[in-house]
Amino acid sequence: MKQLRFAAGVLAAVTLLTACGANDTPAAQGGTVKPGGNLVLLNDAPSITWDPAKSSNLVVTTLGLIHRRLTSWDVAPGKDTTIVPDLATDTGRPSDGGKTWTFTLKDGLKYADGTPIKSEDVKWGLERSFAPAFSGGLAYHKDLLSPGLAYKGPFEGKELDSIQTPDAKTIVFHLARPYGDFNWVASTPAFSPVPKGKGAEANYGDHPVASGPYQLASYERGKSAKLTRNPNWSRDEDKTRLANPDTIEFQLGQDTSVISKRLVDDTGTDRNAFGMSFASPAQLAQIQGSASAKSRLVTSESGALAYLSLNTQRGNLVNPKVRQAFQYAVDKAAYQVASAGSAQLAGDVATTLITPGLQGREQYDLYPAPPSGDVAKAKQLLAEAGFPNGLDGLVLATRNENGYPEKAAAIQASLARAGIKITIKPLDEDTYTSEVDTKGLSDYDLTLTSWQPDIPSANANIQPLFQSTEIGNGGVNESRYNNPEVDKLITEAQATVDPAEAGKKWAALDKKILADSPVVPLIYTRNSFLHGSQVGGVEIGRFPAYVDYRKFGIIQ
Amino acid sequence: MRTARFVATRFAGMLLVLLVVAFVTFVVFYVLPADPARMACGRPCTPEGLQLAREFMGYNAPWYQQFFEFLGGILGGRTFGTGAAAIHCAAPCFGYDFQNNVDVLSEIGGRIEVSFSVALGAAAIWIVLGVGLGVLSALRRGTAVDRITMAAAMAGVSMPAYLAGMIGITIFAFALDVVPKSGYVPLTENPVQWAWHLVLPWFVLAFLHAAIYARLTRGQMLETLGEDYIRTARAKGLTERKVVGRHALRNVLLPVVTVFGVDLGGLLAGTVITERIFGMAGVGRLLVDAIASLNLPVLLGVTLFSALLITVLNFLVDLCYGALDPRARLV
Description:
Distance between the termini of chain A: 38 Å
CATH class of the largest domain in chain B: Mainly Alpha
Order of helices and strands of chain B: HHHEEEEHHHHHHHHH
Largest interface: A-B, 61 and 54 residues
CATH topology of the largest domain in chain B: MetI-like fold
CATH superfamily of the largest domain in chain B: MetI-like
Strand order of the largest sheet of chain A: 9-10-11-2-12
Number of strands of chain A: 21
Strand content of chain A: 15-25%
Oligomer: heterodimer
Shape of chain B: globular
């Protein structure tokens, strides 16, 4: 599960930070970032899944150092994240109304072992991801390329006919339905090349063939991983990765408190180190006492959407007016304090579903109220809905870690002001998943959680949370929002190829869904990371709320 | 003949205990609402994807059938999936870790050295310290030595392991900077570095455990020194060293050995907190990570491994009784 935790993702529990948007330009010791040196990455997770088929890493983190994909992201502080080519010459050419996508590989691409990277290798890598032995990674491509997962991988001797490679440089995808974001999907790990015919062994991830600036020189689970340069990678051709350090060393399975102590201490090789986990509220409080450590804390300007979901298929919550009362009853300022001690540390108050940094997002506020809520308005809506005395007996489910119980208590107190009485049920991660996300009908009225999209597209923000297909069975439509019209609009927006036009559709959906009030957006959760004094180029863009590992460098 | 029968009975008993442990662990996991196949399903996880993962990992069968497949794997090995990408787990197969692509037995095997290094070193220190201080306290009953020793023992017994570890690392690794902050160096690679990286974990663990032994030894020693046979020994004119060392200590050690067997068995199977704080990849850390990632095959494997160590250590303790106390001798 922890794997899942950092594996970049979603339902990221999360946390907060300090100086808003403080991306840093370290001037420590007066040096500048230059190519060379050894970067140390301190990780509390015991292992890293280096097999691209099994990974859910974002483009900007660990696997991006070793594996290139067809497309990549241009991430920088203060701007929306955009799509850029990686192995491909462009970001994909849609035809047939978005059902067919064609990519051409750049000239002269080579693996670390010197063999050329061919389009059939990208196809083979994707085919591998369908084999049950290699499932577990991001799977946004699977249902588009083989609906119902009819294809079971290349190791039974069958090819995936929906992918064609007319020549060594061209790869054509024939999708089951039009999909405007397919070029974004092409930036997920499974679109990394695997030499055709290789990777049948279960432990391919322990010795993957590298296409990125680094190769895996050694890997010991629970202990360490060491990356060295890929001699066949060229900085002139790959514009998205700076690849400054000569070597990168991951120290795995480290205790988070010890990691944070080492980084605050900042001595010896720890000056070249970066902590991969979010700084926790307790650690942030400690760091405030050290000016040196404070200057080495980097905080995102935005992040995962924290929200309260209202079970639209349960009890009085089926009434939209009742749900709208929650928008005013919740005290988002109290939520900020409960999650990180202050508004600035926690992240800005959220009024939209799409998080900042995604193209097409429009800022709006359907339920204008002070950050602490508008209790009178909430009571009025409840009275209009026929509940002048408020509501009683609602149950809120949340996780029993990462400060969720405290945050839930803040929600409970704020709802009580409007006469809404709830009890809190903290659940461990597994129980939460099975009770809230697996059952078709949930026994809970409210859930408190957060969501960070896997790709910088509004689609990845809206569809998983609100399409009716994502109710139960492991989907995360926790409000059990089932609106046939919205379903139709989601499918239409997904099929829209022009990004500007699609953006407008997603923004309209954002408002349309929130008008039904299936969830109360709380905050855009900030993340903070701590690094040693010799590490430079520590940047977090507007999306994702993770440091861009591709830009790290050692100050010399 | 009696020894052979004793050993054979004990062996059969141990096997039965392990079987019961395996069965109970299996049932407990089955009752959990968690679905280990979800970890292998990916995101988004479609119902078809989940079903495929379950089939591949063997979680689609009823639990009793899975249990027999597990037992069968120990005797005859197992194969997961079909075709070129099928995974073979050779006998004795104690399960396969799908998250890390390695069979559970070799995963535990690869980490035994770390856990044994931590546990054996710490045990040597705490038994010497604990018993030594306990005897000293008993002989100097009521003096400052006794009071200070027992106060320290109290602190050791009541201090949470995580706190002791953090205090140790804060003082010795960060403030004084005299020992490494993290990591493990194999004995075969560099014995000096091995010991150097282990010194702090050894003493932290020894501090926590020695306390119990000191209190136990002291109490037992006081009681024994009041016995008639000690008076007889003293009356015979034996030196105090002989009275205490030869006659009293033997009796004192009986309960100590019992507790030691259980403690050591548990510790050899992994020192969870110590391994975590000091960044060592031992069996304990493996167990914690398996719990966190819902890695059932590893969880089951480590549980069985711990049960095995504890039953074996208990067996050894019984043999030790014979050496310490002729009345308990088997032959």
